[in-house]
Amino acid sequence: MIKSSSLLKKSADINSPYRWLILALIRAVAVIICVAVAVFFIIRIVPGDPAKMILGEYSTPEAIESMHHTLGLDLPLWEQFLRFVQNLFTNGDTGASITWGTSTRELIADRAPVTLLLIAMASLVAILVSLVLATLAATHKDRLLDHLIRIFPTITLGMPIFWVGLLLILVLSVRLGWFPVGGVGEGWTGTLYSLTLPAITVAFSQIPTLVRSLRAQMLEVLESDFVVTLKAAGIPNRVILMKHVLRNSALPTLMLLGVNISYLIGGTLVVEQVFGIKGIGSLLFSAISKRDFPVIQGIALYCAISVVIISLLIEIASWWLDPRTKGKQ
Amino acid sequence: MSKLNSFLRKPFLVGPLLILLLVFVAGCSGSKDTPDQNKGANPGTDADQLVNGGTFTYGRPASVNSFDLHNQITSNNAFAIDKVFEPLITFNSDGEIIDWLAKSHSISEDGLTYTFVLRDGLKFSNGTEVTAKDAVFSIQRHLDVGGPLAIAAQVASLKDQDDKTFVITLKEPYTPFISELTNFSNGIIPDNFGGVSEEEFFKNPIGTGPFVVEKWDPAGDLTFSKNSNYWQEGKPYIDKLVYKLIEDDSQAINQLKAGEVDAIESLALENANEIKQGADTTVVTNGSWVTEQLFFNTLDEHFSDIHVRRALALALDREGLTNALTFGYAQVANSLLPPAIPYNTNDTIKALNYDVNAAKEELAKSAFPSGFSTKLLIASGNSTRAQEAQIIQAAGKSIGINIEIESIELASFRERFFAYDFSAMLNSGQADSPEANSILAFQTDPNGFSKSYWTHYTNDEVTKLLNEGQKTLDGTERGDVYANLQQILADEVPYIPLYYPDILKGVRSSVEGLVVLPNGSLRFEDVHLK
After folding, report:
1. Exposure pattern of B459-496 as b/e (b: 16+ CB <10 Å)?
2. Does residue B439 form part of some domain?
3. Domain around B404
4. Could you tell me if B406 lies within 8 Å of chain A, comparing CB atoms?
5. In total, how many domains does chain B have?
6. Is position B129 within any domain?
7. Which residues of B are less than 8 Å from A47 in CB distance?
8. Residues of chain B found within 8 Å of residue A183, distances taken between Cβ atoms
9. CA nearest to A140 within chain B
10. Which residues in chain A land under pLDDT 50?
11. Does residue B355 lie within any of the structural domains?
12. Could you tell me which residue ranges the Solute-binding protein family domain spans (chain B) (predicted)?
């Protein structure tokens, strides 16, 4: 009681971090509720009957009617929505998949690890490559290398991600045989190996913006007074770069990566399809083509929740790292 | 670093080097021209060099989500069900009916009694013997369930005369029955599901087929292992068969090229020659039971007019369309019935052949002599259909019919044509069995659930001929009935047959003995991997 009243007191203060946190949490929950409602209704507006998808073109009207009943699609929309919400709260699930019979939560749980691993690998590749390119560009400002690196984002930003994936497959997998064309290999090493090309493809869409941001930040820091002082003090360039410049430039870039996480998730879903990886993305594609409502809703909802949670964590982390950013996200 | 910098400052060096690298990469492919391996079953060839065992990986665009043979129709499940369950009689790669689990069958002269004698020593994959009781149970369940491939014949009784003899008696003659029995949905399952619940049985199915389900993810891959109790001695030669889910077409082709799969189920016409000429890949083909067609909604204000339909048929150069779009993997269609099905009249029928002047004259007889505007519905994502649509559009323009192409996503496309919400559409029709009645009934019976394939085409003479064909015993008389029927359809054109596409499977050159059936399924029991 004492604790909560003191929390309330603290949150009443406009600048209090607690008030900020509570507001951020409320906002997150509101976003998730909106997504849940939107996802339920939008998918029902799209034409296409799941019963016909299951039974095929040659199904009889009686069979379709009985399938509607089995799936609960003959109920009024509001009752379907109530069931949907009830299921969400009791089981954390959007119901059993129409096509595969198993619960959506199980399907997603089966597919999630490979997608998460792909996102992690892609982020790692994106960060590492961006760091190297941005450092090279910043330290060679206005020289050929800088120009080349700055042209790179302009070109790559114009390339559709699936096309990059297809190109990599064609050259590195089909022609040269260096990487598997698709699927996920056996065991840890097999998995990491087969996810390398997809990870590079997803990273490709992230690198341009990261390089731009990091290069600009590094140039700003490189030209700041304290670096000039350090240089004057005779500290080697390498040490200044590693110890001071990178550290001071990294935060905004990490925040940018956080903001990009939703694009990263979207990109991963497309790339999974191109590389034949059985993750969340390919599950979503099949579910859409089969009008498998529960699965589409489940994936959209879980993706939305992860994006909201990640954004929230990044807001908290950046605020913790640099209190000046508080509430400015 | 400075050396690298100075090197990079010489674009005249970098450019040619990059080009050389690209040329090298592009040049890393060979080419060859192997003949189609077709009808693959060639187990006698090089028999000494063939090695048993190994895993055959087959890339398929959809996962298998049910083994309930009486409730399924789509190829994603049918082509897995037919590996586990087998019917009493079946068809070969030429579409001819052959005995399978039955060593012989006979039909009484009045066309009412069908007698099947089972092979000796026939066992289910769990080792129990197959008896006539199992056949009674299987067909009875199919009758009870109905399902999408319901038995249309009026069955009076099913009887196990003795352990090996199974007799079906009909209430009235229904000639297509024998060929319909070849369907996968008439596969034999153990009596009373072998003592387990229905649900449990179809999760772990037990049949007489060459393969048994080993590992199955309804939303992913399916692994079969060989049935050691299989009735064909020594077969299958491979140990495992994996159905690998690859939903993306280009991913499937790339996996085939890279040798990650041994064959792929879906190969588009435009990719066929690339795969055929690949260093390690080839194309296996067979004639299909499919007819690609332009369908008219006969309830539509324009296409209810027979002269409009005939005019468009005359304006369309079907031969040119087929040559331009199918890369030699199709035959021009004159009749609705594909040449791979008995009683087709493709060579003798009088079809409305390309003649623009005749087309104009025909349109002049219609209620819209100066032309009109209409829409052609197609499903998106099928480049061949998109091109067909453009050719049809041009044909329409030549006689004053202005056709707008409406391309929509497959699920919505189906929804639209099931609701008659279209004027004309492109689609194909496929027979389920080697029997004229199959596709004809599906596309001409306005009272059937398909309502003449959602064209609502109604013609009493056609309905009469259809019923006659179902009751007339096989022979020239039945042939005449279907010849008449096909000619009426060619004259009234509720649909314009365009071409009969071949079945194409992309296959690694190391595969021997693959059999392509005219329904699109494969037989793997004769397959050897080199």
Report:
1. beebbebbebbbebebeeebbebbbbbbbebbebbbbb
2. yes
3. 290-501
4. no
5. 1
6. no
7. 411-412, 415-416
8. 244, 246, 255, 260
9. B5
10. 1-4, 11, 327-329
11. yes
12. 96-448
